[in-house]
Write a structure and sequence with these properties.
Chain A is an all-beta fold. Helices cover 0% and strands 48% of the residues of chain A. Chain A starts with a strand and ends with a strand. Classes of the chains: A mainly beta (107), B mainly beta (117).
Chain lengths: 107, 117
């Protein structure tokens, strides 16, 4: 199975900050990477797929990049609604595995 | 709008069985792949199984292969997960999700399964 790691596990930030979360796969996943946002008591929501493509309705302050084994989610200017946990997921090879999550909390 | 509502979770003894259901609405159910995923305390988010729109293509994670069975009823817009030989490590919040190229744009709110004596 492809193992997914994320860093940091927790990130403390303020409204307006630029936030970067990193996801690393144990082998190349050829851009087949998605990012999800999850808030307490709610199901995850898809933010980005195919490394770069924003899901419909997702604000443009979210962006994704990367290649090979290393991928990044960037929030250009953090908004109050963005305090949440973020997960990456690879879908290059079954089983389709998730990272452990990065919690973005208030600094 | 897309709605997915899971049901059927509960407390079950190790070795027991449970059948989860997912009622779908707001889209043409038979046109979409559907999946089951779960969140466990130990392993986090885990994909379990997927089924094609027609039901002809089915895949399972190794952790549940041979014990769990996914199915769908396109007439009644429903997805199912039959879980047999349940183990303590199957304790989780189970989600159904509409798939898109093995990503999951739409999720239900989940149903809790607890395997314990």
């Amino acid at each position: 199975d492809i193992q997914m790691t994320q860093s940091p596990s927790t990130l403390s930030a303020s409204v307006g900050d630029r936030v970067t979360i990193t996801c690393r796969a144990s082998q190349s996943i050829s851009y087949w990477l998605a990012w999800y946002q999850e808030k307490p008591g709610k199901a995850p929501t898809l933010l980005i797929y195919d490394t770069f493509t924003l899901q419909g309705g997702v604000p443009s302050r979210f962006s994704g990049s990367g290649s090979g084994t290393d991928y990044t989610l960037t929030i250009s200017r953090l908004q109050p609604d963005d305090f949440a946990t973020y997960y990456c997921q690879q879908y290059d090879t079954s089983p389709f595995t998730f990272g452990p999550g990065t919690k973005v909390d208030v600094k | 709008q897309v709605q997915l509502v899971e049901s059927g979770g509960g407390l079950v003894n190790p070795g027991g069985s449970l059948r989860l259901s997912c009622a779908a609405s707001g889209f043409t159910f038979s046109s979409y792949h559907m999946s089951w995923l779960r969140r466990t305390p130990g392993k986090g988010l885990e994909w379990i199984s997927s089924i094609s729109g027609s039901g002809s293509d089915i895949t399972y994670a190794d952790s549940v292969k041979g014990r769990f069975s996914i199915s769908r009823d396109n007439t009644n817009n429903s997805l199912y997960l039959q879980m047999n030989s349940l183990r303590s490590e199957d304790t989780a919040l189970y989600y159904c999700a509409r798939s898109f190229s093995e990503t999951y744009p739409y999720w239900g709110q989940g149903t809790v399964v607890t395997v314990s004596s």
